[in-house]
Design brief:
The chain is of the alpha+beta class. The protein has 27 helices and 35 strands. The strands form 10 sheets. Strands 8, 9, 10, 11, 12, 13 and 16 form a 7-stranded mixed beta sheet that branches. A 4-stranded parallel beta sheet has the order 2-1-24-25, covered by helices on one side. Strands 4-3-7-17 form a 4-stranded antiparallel beta sheet. α1 crosses α24 and α19 crosses α20 (about 655-680). The protein binds one RNA strand through α7, β9, β13, α11 and β31.
Length: about 850
RNA sequence: GCGAGAGUGGCGGAACUGGCAGACGCGCUAGACUUAGGAUCUAGUGGGCAACCGUGGGGGUUCAACUCCCCCCUCUCGCACCA
C-alpha cells in the first residue's frame, strides 16, 4: 500500500534537512559564477500576506533554479524594521516599539519559514538593530563631509496626523502615503540629501538598464522630469533689480507680454513696497499661501492673480510687461517666476483673457492660418516665428538655439536645464528611526558625532503620548550632551532619518552582514554585487528604487564600491487580487458570511463585486498560514506561480488552489505506483532500440526539459513551465496505460519530472526523490539538459492549407524535400476534392511544417 | 492632457523570430467506482444543424496576421497648472 501525500508531515522534515545540511549558505566561490537573487524585504507588520508569499515564492524558484545550474547563489532576507506602525502601537497599546517590532519579526519569520524558502538566514538584517543603523549614521557623516547631506529651512510637506515631514514622493494625491491624511505645508529646518546633484546620472543611466521594465523606467524619468530651456533675465522698470525666469520656450520670447510670479517669491515684497497696491497684494499673497498647496495645484483650479503695480522690460521688444502674482506659479519649480506668453501657453492664455492682458502672436502654424481673432485657445505646437524681428521665419527648434545664442552673447540669459526632482528631505520628527548623528553646540555650531562614538543609540526610556513632536525631545539623557569639540554643553539633533535611508543600501549589507568594523566588506561586495535579480512590488517604482540607485552612486563616489547601478534586472510582480462580496445592507462580506449567494445575516442577495487588490477592509483576503495548514506550502507555491505570469495581476481562486493540490497528488500517486518497478533500474537508454510508445515518452521528457528551461529563462514564465510539467504527467499516466514502457524510459521521465518540479514544489520533490531510492537532496542534482537526439522525430505532421486556411494534415518523414511535400499534399483525398476544377496558382512549402496551396 | 501597459472561450491564461488559435488549469456535462462525500477516475467541452464563422472595432501589407502597419473604441497603472 502506498503512502498518502501528507505535506504537513514531510514539509517540516525537509525544511529541517536543508537547514542541517546548510544547503542555502552562500559562499564566495571564485570558481563559480555568482548570482544575487533578492526580494524586497518586508516591513514587520506582524503577519505575512499573499503579496509577500507571491514575491518570495517567485524569488525562491529563481534562486533554486540558479543553484541547480551551478551558480554560487546569495539569497538573503531581512526586515525593514523602523517605521511608524511600531510607534503607533506604542501610543495605542503601550508596547515599546522595539518589543513590538522584534516580536513581529519572530512571528513573520516563523510564517515565512513554513514556505520552505531557500534563504541564507545567517545574513539576516533588521534595520532597527544598532549594528545596522550605526552604518546609516556612518554613511550620513560621509555624506555630510561631501556636502551631500545638508540642512536648510524650507517649506515641507507636513502630515498633521503622523506629525512628520513627508518627501514629495511620499505624498500621493495630496495625501500621506501611509495614513491618507491631507498633507499640509510647514516651514522647518530640515536635513536633506542632495539627490539633485545626481539627477542627470540617474536619468541617463535609465538607458543602461535593459533588465528593468519599461514602465518603471518611464516612471523614474517622469519623476526626475528633465526639461531643457533657458534662464532669462528681465529688468524691472525704474529699478536696478531683475527677475530671472526659466522657460523651455525661449523661441516665444517676443510674445511675452506679462510676468507671473509665485506668491512666495522673495521679490514680491520689494516690488510692492510703497505702492498703492501693497495692502491688496499682501492680502492676496497671504490668502494663497494659507491655501492648501495640494488644492492650489489641483487640476481645473481657477487661475487667480493680482497686479503688483510693477513692470518688467521684455529684452527683445523693450515693451513694459506688468508683473502679476499668480496662484498657479510654484516657487519650487524653475525660478518661481514665469514669462507669460499667452498666445502660446494654455495657462497664460486663460490668465490673459480673464484679466484682459495683451496677447501677441509670435508662432505661426506650418500652414499659416493663425490669427489672433480665430484663436480660441493658445497655440502650443511648433511652427515658425513671426513678429520676432531678426528671428522671423525660423522654425521653433532652430529659433530656440538662435535665441539662446543671442541671450548668452548679450549677457541677458543662458541655456539651462531644470529638473522636477527635488532634494530628498530625510528629517522625521519621530522616535522609531535612525538618530541623525549631529550635535548643536552654542559655541561650535553644528558638530558631527565622531565616528568612534557611533552608534548614537536610541534611548529606551521615552514616553509615547502621541501628542506634540518627537518623543526624543523629552529624553533628557539623550538630548543633553557634551560638545565633541569644546566639551561644552550641547544638544543632540532629535530628528531621525526617513526609513527609506535604511532600505537604500541593505543589499550591500547582506554581503557581509556581520562585519562590525565597516558597513560592508568591499571584497564581498565586489564578488556579489550587483544584484542580478531584484523582485518586488510596483509601489516602489519611484521612491525605494530611485533612492537605492542614488545611494549606490554616492557610495561609489565615496570610493567604497565600483558599480554604478545596484540592480541589473528588476521584476515587478503583479498584485494579488480576489473577487469582492458585498451585501447591500452589511457591506463587504467574507466568503464564509455568504450562504447560497445570500448574506448569512440578513438573507439579501450578495453582489459579486470587482476583482480587487486583497485588503482587510474589503474582506477579500486569504491567510497564507491557513492555506499552508490546509494544503501545504507546495500547493500554495504552485498555485501562486501557475495562476498568472509573475508580472501580471494574480486573481486568487479557491478552486485553482484545489487544482494545484490535485496536480501534486497525481504526481505523488504516479511516483508511488511506479517506484517498485523503476527503483533499481540501472540500464542505459538506446534511442534506436525503443518502440514507438517508449520513443514518444522519451521525447516528451526531453521536450519538457526544453520547455521548462526556456520558460524560466524567458522572463520567468513559470505558469507555462508548470503547464508543461502537467503535460508530462498526463503523458506518463495516460500514455503508459495498456502499453508496457521500458523501465529505463519510465524512470527517466519520472526523475526528470521530480528534478524539474523541485524549484517550484521543493518538499514533495525531495520526498519523491528519496522514494525512488536516491540519496541526498534533489537540489544537488544539476539542472537537466535536453538531448537534441531525443527530440528529433522521424515523422512530422504537415499542415495543408488552401488559401491560408487549414484543410488537411499529412504525416511525412522529417526533412522531406519540397517536391515530395507538395506531391503528398496534392494527393490527399480531401485536398483533391477541394481543389478539383481550380487552377493552382502557387504552392508555398514551409519545411517540416506546412503547405499552402493558393488557388 | 502626457507617459506606460492591456483587450483571446463561461473563467485564469497559452500561442517564442508571422505558419494548426484556445496548450495547461478551473468550471461545466455525461459516465464509472463508492459506506450517496465539495473525494477519485474516464470521456467531452469556442460558436453554428451545416457550408463555415471566430483573438475589442474598421482598414491595410502578406501565400499566410492574436502577432506587422494606419485609424478608432474600451480598460488598468503612473504623472499632471512643471513654465
Amino acid at each position: 500500500m502506498e503512502k498518502k501525500y501528507t505535506p504537513k508531515e514531510m514539509e517540516p522534515k525537509w525544511q529541517g534537512y536543508w537547514e542541517n545540511k546548510k544547503l542555502f549558505t552562500a559562499k564566495e566561490d571564485p570558481k563559480k559564477r555568482k548570482y544575487y537573487c533578492l526580494e524586497m524585504f518586508p516591513y514587520p507588520s506582524g503577519r505575512i500576506h499573499m503579496g509577500h508569499v507571491r514575491n518570495y515564492v517567485i524569488g525562491d524558484v529563481i534562486a533554486r533554479y540558479k543553484m541547480m545550474q551551478g551558480f554560487s547563489v546569495i539569497h538573503p532576507m531581512g526586515w525593514d524594521a523602523f517605521g511608524m506602525p511600531a510607534e503607533n502601537a506604542a501610543i495605542e497599546k503601550g508596547i515599546h516599539p522595539a518589543k513590538w517590532t522584534y516580536e513581529n519579526i519572530a512571528n513573520m519569520k516563523a510564517q515565512i519559514k513554513k514556505l520552505g524558502l531557500s534563504y541564507d538566514w545567517n545574513r539576516e538584517v533588521a534595520t532597527c538593530d544598532e549594528d545596522y543603523y550605526k552604518w546609516n549614521q556612518w554613511l550620513f557623516l560621509k555624506m555630510y563631509e561631501k556636502g551631500i547631506a545638508y540642512k536648510k529651512r524650507s517649506f515641507v510637506n507636513w502630515c498633521p496626523s503622523c506629525e512628520t515631514v513627508l518627501a514629495n514622493e511620499q505624498v500621493e494625491d495630496g495625501s500621506c502615503w501611509r495614513c491618507s491624511s491631507i498633507v499640509g505645508q510647514k516651514e522647518l529646518e530640515q536635513w536633506f540629501f542632495k539627490i539633485t546633484d545626481y539627477a542627470e546620472e540617474l536619468l541617463s543611466c535609465t538607458e543602461k538598464l535593459p533588465g528593468w521594465p519599461e514602465n518603471v523606467l518611464a516612471m523614474q524619468r517622469n519623476w526626475i522630469g528633465r526639461s531643457t530651456g533657458a534662464e532669462i533675465d528681465f529688468k524691472i522698470a525704474g529699478t536696478n533689480e531683475k527677475i530671472t525666469v526659466f522657460t523651455t520656450r525661449q523661441d516665444t520670447l517676443f510674445g511675452a507680454t506679462f510676468m507671473s510670479i509665485a506668491p512666495e517669491h522673495p521679490l514680491v515684497k520689494k516690488l510692492i513696497k510703497g505702492k498703492k497696491t501693497e495692502k491688496e497684494v499682501m492680502a492676496f499673497v497671504e490668502r494663497i499661501m494659507h491655501e492648501d498647496k495640494i488644492m492650489r495645484t489641483a487640476e481645473g483650479m481657477e487661475k487667480e492673480g493680482i497686479f503688483t503695480g510693477a513692470y518688467a522690460i521684455n529684452p527683445m521688444t523693450k515693451k513694459e510687461m506688468p508683473i502679476w502674482v499668480a496662484n498657479f506659479v510654484l516657487m519650487e519649480y524653475g525660478t518661481g517666476a514665469v514669462m507669460a506668453v499667452p498666445c502660446h501657453d494654455t495657462r497664460d492664455f486663460a490668465f490673459a483673457k480673464k484679466y484682459n492682458l495683451p496677447i501677441q502672436l509670435v508662432i505661426q502654424n506650418p500652414v499659416g492660418t493663425l490669427t489672433l481673432d480665430n484663436m480660441k485657445d493658445a497655440y502650443v505646437d511648433e511652427g515658425y516665428l513671426i513678429n520676432s524681428g531678426e528671428f522671423n521665419n525660423l522654425k521653433t527648434a532652430e529659433a530656440k538655439e538662435r535665441i539662446a545664442d543671442y541671450l548668452e552673447k548679450e549677457g541677458m540669459g543662458k541655456r539651462s536645464i531644470n529638473y522636477r526632482l527635488r532634494d530628498w528631505g530625510i528629517s522625521r520628527q519621530r522616535y522609531w528611526g535612525t538618530p541623525i548623528p549631529i550635535i548643536y553646540c552654542d559655541k561650535c555650531g553644528t558638530v558631527t558625532v565622531p565616528e568612534k562614538d557611533l552608534p548614537v543609540k536610541l534611548p529606551k526610556d521615552v514616553a509615547f503620548t502621541g501628542k506634540g513632536a518627537s518623543p526624543l525631545l523629552d529624553a533628557k539623557g539623550f538630548v543633553d550632551v557634551k560638545c565633541p569639540k569644546c566639551n561644552g554643553s550641547a544638544k543632540r539633533e532629535t530628528d531621525t532619518m526617513d526609513t527609506f535611508v535604511d532600505s537604500s543600501w541593505y543589499f550591500l549589507r547582506y554581503t557581509s552582514a556581520k562585519d562590525d568594523t565597516r558597513p560592508f566588506d568591499p571584497e564581498k561586495v565586489k564578488y556579489w554585487m550587483p544584484v542580478d535579480q531584484y523582485i518586488g512590488g510596483i509601489e516602489h517604482a519611484v521612491m525605494h528604487l530611485l533612492y537605492s540607485r542614488f545611494f549606490t552612486k554616492v557610495i561609489r563616489d565615496l570610493g567604497l564600491i565600483k558599480i554604478d547601478e545596484p540592480f541589473t534586472n528588476l521584476l515587478t510582480q503583479g498584485m494579488v487580487c480576489k473577487e469582492t462580496l458585498r451585501c447591500p445592507e452589511h457591506g463587504w462580506l467574507f466568503p464564509e458570511d455568504v450562504k447560497d449567494n445570500r448574506c448569512a445575516t440578513c438573507g439579501k442577495e450578495v453582489e459579486r463585486g470587482r476583482v480587487e487588490k486583497m485588503s482587510k477592509s474589503k474582506k477579500n483576503v486569504v491567510d497564507p498560514d491557513k492555506l499552508i495548514d490546509n494544503y501545504g506550502a507546495d500547493t500554495v507555491r504552485l498555485f501562486s506561480l501557475f495562476a498568472a505570469p509573475p508580472e501580471k495581476y494574480l486573481e486568487w481562486s479557491d478552486q485553482g488552489v484545489d487544482g494545484a493540490w490535485r496536480f501534486l497528488s497525481r504526481v505523488w500517486v504516479l511516483v508511488q505506483k511506479n517506484s517498485d518497478i523503476i527503483k533499481d533500474v540501472k540500464g542505459k537508454i538506446e534511442i534506436s532500440e525503443l518502440d514507438s510508445a517508449e520513443r514518444g515518452l522519451y521525447r516528451k521528457t526531453h521536450l519538457t526539459i526544453k520547455k521548462v528551461t526556456e520558460d524560466i529563462e524567458r522572463d520567468f514564465h513559470f505558469n507555462t513551465a508548470i503547464a508543461a510539467m502537467m503535460e508530462l504527467v498526463n503523458e506518463i499516466s495516460g500514455g503508459s496505460e495498456g502499453k508496457v514502457v521500458q523501465a529505463e524510459v519510465l524512470k527517466a521521465a519520472l526523475e526528470t519530472l521530480i528534478i524539474l518540479l523541485s524549484p517550484f514544489a521543493p518538499h514533495i520533490s525531495e520526498e519523491l526523490w528519496s522514494v525512488l531510492g536516491n540519496k541526498g537532496s534533489v537540489m544537488d542534482i544539476p539542472w537537466p539538459k535536453y538531448n537534441e537526439g531525443a527530440i528529433k522525430t522521424e515523422d512530422v505532421l504537415i499542415v495543408i492549407q488552401i488559401n491560408g486556411k487549414l484543410r488537411g494534415k499529412i504525416t511525412l518523414s522529417a526533412g522531406a524535400a519540397e517536391d515530395e511535400v507538395k506531391k503528398g499534399a496534392l494527393e490527399d483525398e480531401r485536398i483533391k476534392e477541394l481543389i478539383a476544377g481550380k487552377a493552382i496558382r502557387k504552392v508555398i512549402v514551409v519545411k517540416d511544417k506546412l503547405v499552402n496551396i493558393v488557388v
